[in-house]
Design brief:
The structure is a single chain. It is globular, with a radius of gyration of 19 Å. 33% of the residues are buried. Strands 1, 2, 3, 4, 5, 6 and 7 form a seven-stranded mixed β-sheet that branches. The chain is 38% helix and 17% strand. With 258 residues, the protein is of the alpha/beta class.
Amino acid sequence: MEITPEQFAIIEDLLPVQRGNVKLLNLDVLNAVLHIAEHGCKWRGLPERFGNWHSVYMRANRWAKQGVLEKVFLALQEAEIINIRVDHVSLDSTAVKVHPDGTGALKKNGPQSIGKSRAGWTTKIHMVAAGAQTAVTFSLSPGQAGDAPEGRKLLNTLKDKRWKGTKVLMDRAYEGDETRQLVLDLEMAPVVPPKRNRRNPWEYDKELYKKRNEVERLFRRLKGFRRIFSRFEKLDVMFVFFIHFALIVDTLFSVNRP
């Protein structure tokens, strides 16, 4: 799988302009990163056809630190190439096992959302999704972090969206009073089943709740990239880079174009 010039043209103007005598084009770098993301190989293991592995790594690292792909992701949303429906969204998390290569970085080097849970060293990806192929936003936390507190932090980032009346589909991990109240304060509507031991259980739209599987399907699409299925990155900034990269590439391959 490779990004074609036609697909690259959609985001070409959103990437930093190349200056000077640069041998590797941005398209070449993206296809090299795609190979890394798909196969989970080390940077040094990049096939020679992609050019010098160190040059690819340095540009990817620079883009990661500058938040280049996050800006591209947000620009695609604004241009409605990533088309977000606002009738309902889903909130959920998934755990990613950390490869031994992804541990051991010094704390001073940057944030590392890695923690020990029942599954060992893991990172959680918390996500708000507007469909099986559409992410609204996401964040990282150590694997042992609770879903509800991290989910509330993510929901708070939607304040400026002003999606009045939007249904928020959540599983029982988010059925606590604080989380449901936050959704209501955001003028959105929680759709979450009550726990069986609730003294005063509430009614919820069971048919609409079935669509919560959309976020699960989105996680499945992301984990098709081995670099996301298992975390190899020591620092969050690089792992976030790969998540944004996967979301952008998935959009480029999925969007219908004439």
